[in-house]
Amino acid sequence: MLTGRVVSVNGPIVKAAGLRGIGMFDIAEVGRDRLIGEVIRLVGEITVIQVYEDNTGLRPGDEVTSSCRPLSVLLGPGLIANIYDGIQRPLVGISEACGHYIKKGIKLSPLDTEKKWEFTPLIEAGAEVNEGDILGEIPESPLVMHKVLVPPGLSGRLTSIGAAGRYTIEDDLYTIENGAAPYQGKLAAYWPVRKPRPSRSKKKPFIPLMTGQRVIDTFFPIARGGTATIPGGFGTGKTMTQHALAKWCNADIIVYIGCGERGNEMTDVLTEFPKLIDERNGRPLIERTVMIANTSNMPVPAREVSIYTGVTIAEYYRDMGYSVAVMADSTSRWAEALRELASRLGDMPAEEGFPPYLATRLAEFYERAGLVETLSGVDGDISIIGAVSPPGGDFSEPVTQHTSRFVRCFWALDKILADARHYPSISWIDSYTEYLHDIEGWWKDLDADWLTIRAQVMAILLEDNRLQQVVKLVGSDAMPPAQQFTLFVADMIKNAFLQQNSFDPVDKYCPPEKQLKLLKAILDLHTTGEDLVRCGATVKEISALEVVSEMVRLKSEVPNNELERIDDYRKRLAAGLASLKEKIQKG
Amino acid sequence: MTAEIEYTTLSGISGPLIFVEGVKGVGYGEIVEIRDKSAEVRIGQTLEVDEDRAIVQVFEGTSGLSVKDVRVTFVGRSLEIPVHRDMLGRVFDGLGRPIDGAPQVITDNLMNVNGLPVNPWSREYPRDFIQTGISAIDGMNTLIRGQKLPIFSGSGMPHNLIAAQIARQARILNAEEEFTVIFAAMGVKFDMARFFIDSLEESGVLTHSAIFLSLADAPSIERLITPRVALTLAEHLAFEEGMHVLVIMTDMTNYCESLRELSSSRGEIPSRKGYPGYLYSDLAAIYERAGRLKGINGSITQVPILTMPSDDISHPVPDLTGYITEGQIVLERELFNKGIYPPIAGLPSLSRLMKDGIGEGRTRSDHAQNAAQLFASYAKVKRIRALAAIVGEEELSELDKIYLRFGTAFEERFLRQGDEENRSIIETLDLGWQMLSLLPKEELYRVRMEDIQRYYMPQQEVQEAASCRL
Q1: CB distance A297–B288 less than 8 Å?
Q2: Tens-place pLDDT, residues B220-256
Q3: Which fold has domain A201-434?
Q4: Chain A, 38-97: which have a CB under 8 Å from a chain B CB?
Q5: Contact A549 B442 (CB under 8 A)
Q6: Domain boundaries, chain A
Q7: Radius of gyration (Cα) for chain A, nearest Å?
Q8: DSSP character for A253?
Q9: What pTM does this model have?
């Protein structure tokens, strides 16, 4: 244990002397309240510490102590359905201990130390075990079977293992010997947040992460193990999109990081997720969710570390062979925390005051995503979806620009769409994905023509975008009928397919099969309609057909388990268009 | 309190900052008392401390101070103000001292003005609809109890009139609970503050209001404390006394400018437009004090007002505010020039908490769809107007012309209302349907079929309804 004293205080940055031997990123306890801080710089005799709590009243001369351990999270059963602040303090526990406000210097175990978990060993004492091997299982929640693994970097002979039964995270569970001192294992162990957990190898992602959001799944899909960013100015629906993904994407585990965002939004997640039922398994969504909430009014340094806390927890579940999705909302707040601390340290600024190491830090963070072969030899993956809040909605700012270099999916939110309450307001012109060909195989198993259908619909949207430039100048009525029809179909795609209501009981989640069927219905209208226009029908005649105006309501009126109704609809649509054709040819 | 040492060792003064040398044992964020020759006391706070030096910001400004003859005392605690429900009906300065001639309220309940961060777990998600009687707000950008919903305005626009109207008319549907109003003015002119006080007085709201004034002629640094003082009282009234408090803060742009002034005197690295990099966190510390807490009846609803320099919504102040608050009410110069009151812009305005506070059992089951359709149709009007400006109205299609008529009716009859006119939510929704009924049914794709059957009016009725209103 090292002891030193404070020499200066500038906001959350504290300089201390007399801590010779302390390491970078080690934890220090500062002042009478023993506030938690992390060493971020060492200059001669001076140790620079960022303090994760409000340090008002801290004085030069106050004591600083450190046990020279890096900032770590406690990994074990009980993480699921829990909510933590940026340094993994349990918010429920804090509220029980000190009421509605977060008081200084409070220290609580992140995991329940008294709860007994039902452990079933899967291996017998005496076996040779390697790092990552599965020792046993615990049903952590009805949705998550928690696997107890041999910690990374450890192998040897399993000399003892607890029998099936109930254990707390503090009970001794197993012993591993490999010549050195025996390792006494428990259900939970610490891992430093800034150090990625190891895996055997990285693999190329090939399965799409199904989100149930049509514009994403069909047009800009992300693979399991992929990275995506959602940039958008305020009011464009970043958080709503993140919430929709957290609710409906088919990952096994969701880690939701509210980083410097609104308190009420976290409350929304907290009150809604226990009530929302996942249609796929009939269980509340909270049973697969871990939440990190460091809202905008909580101390800034803890915001900086919250995304590492989140991704380390994600890696822990990945190592058990799960598919994990991390939502970070918003990485801009994280970058701003970095900027604020850099400025207090007197670092030379690069673009817009951000420190020069912003890009490196972003790259390191997104690199922790991926599909991997875990140490136990199974596949596990982490997808990271980071929201970005560009000032003034301007995508040329540093955080958006650097992020787009390191992610492979770019879901650009469009202010004009959001203003018209077209949600999700993901622009089909500015967004892109690089996973299309990685996951093509999966979709082709569902329908061999998927890629063609997608391309046809996209072509209509791009044509529409081009035509809109002309429409702005002359109005749509002055356009040739064929082009008017293209505009009409494009509008149909926007309203009947791209626009999705996340509060509608049916429309909130759209399975891939339904997405395909809707697209086919739209393409039916396009192909047959073009022919009709050539025969002399006007767009007005086509749009006035009852069956055509019905199309826009299919997404919400056809339940997801009665998809054959869309097939019926396509028949009625064909009949309706055919009779119009007959009428025109007669008349 | 330990014996206080007086220091006379000032080494420099820069803007609102003084530098004191040779100090020992001074805490970060501590309150400082500064006495000049005439023994007048000013209040300050330490911003940075090291082993023998402290940097202090002086809330009342440094004008008239010199490095000689100044005595500085470190009080050993952070800034606290007395809070009590007797403070209602009173007027205070920007630091919370009475200026209405009556003595300071006597209480030993002192609260730190900086507050403490609320545990997100302890928040209660706001769901109670507040009827403001203004259609553009109630119908399309609903205010919810516990929400922070700012008004983004521009110079000359009637934001104060709207805020006063909200303060007078705000009430919870089916409940007799009234709002307590706390008004914090930062760097605004006296006439404006007077207007507000008079308006509250006329409607009899003043007796349960508290007013904090840091007027334009007060030292700019004082503004940094004013909203905190106001919110500290609000927290006491809401969470200790169980009242529903509406906090109106104007003008947040002045607040941010004071922060910029302070930051630049400290020589900090600026981010956008010279504002400090921590502007977001600093604003969040104010705005996030709105809300509700589990198991407590009271609430704090914030309506901050800010003027956007040259009506630019991407200016750092409105931009960062919009990222923290739960939506925004944007005033539009174009509507204002047309003489429409309230000139609430249809499209960029937004209430994020609206979705859970409206609908069946709260307002009416068609509310969400009604609002969504009005937004979508009005967005189309904007596009058609842009086109009409180029090709001329005559060249537009029949449907486009119908949309233009809808657009005008929407602005003239739905948005426009008197500053004393108090519309019920049902009136507002019915008015919305009247507007939508100007459009053909096929164009209404955001509303449910059953609602169309129920509320869509035949053309004739729309005309009649219009003529009886006029």
Answers
A1: yes
A2: 888 999 999 999 999 999 999 999 999 999 999 999 9
A3: Rossmann fold (3.40.50)
A4: 54-61, 83, 91-92, 94-95
A5: yes
A6: 2-71, 112-187, 201-434, 447-586
A7: 28
A8: E
A9: 0.91
